[in-house]
């Protein structure tokens, strides 16, 4: 879940029709070890691969926020060049051709990491980046943007969703091929 205000990045006015999912999520009160999300449940979910054409160095998740922009963690892309980053939208099971609708992969034109981001052992509140895609995304039932909050919206004490292909267990290096989701409490970032 990524509820954030991006003061150093341009506003994205095309927030109409955002946040619409193909499926209704049901609450799971677990932090690690989410469940299969269901195809199209998170149409804004991006699968981000970082590496050369010969090898993948790492992978991260992100959220589609407009027809040309994806927000992700700064630490994922801070040391990468745009040519090393590829964004896949509409994927559910990684490397599977047997899905109801196809996934689409995009090159990245620019990487804008928050100017205050630093690699630190502890969590960094500026760990955010915006990727500008090389071409326009055509919205479909399984590919659509997430809504960005208004500047003064308060989500503290509410629950949001986290989705991705990250570890199912703490410390595990194993990653699922199927998109996972879990609901999590929204915390204060101060």
TrEMBL record:
Residues 31-190 form the Peptidase S1 domain. InterPro entries: Peptidase_S1_PA (IPR009003), Peptidase_S1_PA_chymotrypsin (IPR043504), Trypsin_dom (IPR001254), TRYPSIN_HIS (IPR018114). GO terms for molecular function: serine-type endopeptidase activity. Pfam families: Trypsin. SMART domains: Tryp_SPc. Keywords: Disulfide bond. GO terms for biological process: proteolysis. The keyword Disulfide bond applies. Transmembrane segments: none annotated. Belongs to the peptidase S1 family. CLIP subfamily. This is AGAP008999-PA. The lineage of its organism: Eukaryota, Metazoa, Ecdysozoa, Arthropoda, Hexapoda.
């Amino acid at each position: 879940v990524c509820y954030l205000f991006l003061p150093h990045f341009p506003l994205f006015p095309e927030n109409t029709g955002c946040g619409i999912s193909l499926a209704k999520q049901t609450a799971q009160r677990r932090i690690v070890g989410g469940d299969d999300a269901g195809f199209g449940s998170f149409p804004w979910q991006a699968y981000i691969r970082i590496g050369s054409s010969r090898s993948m160095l790492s992978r991260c998740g992100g959220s589609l926020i407009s027809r040309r922009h994806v927000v992700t963690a700064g630490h994922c892309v801070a040391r990468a060049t745009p040519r090393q980053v590829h964004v896949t939208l509409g994927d559910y099971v990684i490397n599977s051709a047997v899905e109801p609708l196809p996934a689409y992969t995009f090159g990245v034109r620019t990487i804008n990491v928050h100017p205050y981001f630093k690699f630190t052992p502890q969590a960094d509140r500026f760990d955010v980046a915006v990727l500008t895609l090389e071409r326009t995304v055509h919205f479909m039932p399984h590919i659509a943007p997430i809504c960005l909050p208004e500047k003064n919206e308060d989500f503290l004490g509410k629950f949001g969703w986290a989705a991705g292909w990250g570890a199912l267990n703490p410390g595990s290096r194993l990653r699922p091929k199927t998109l996972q989701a879990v609901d999590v409490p929204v915390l204060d970032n101060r």
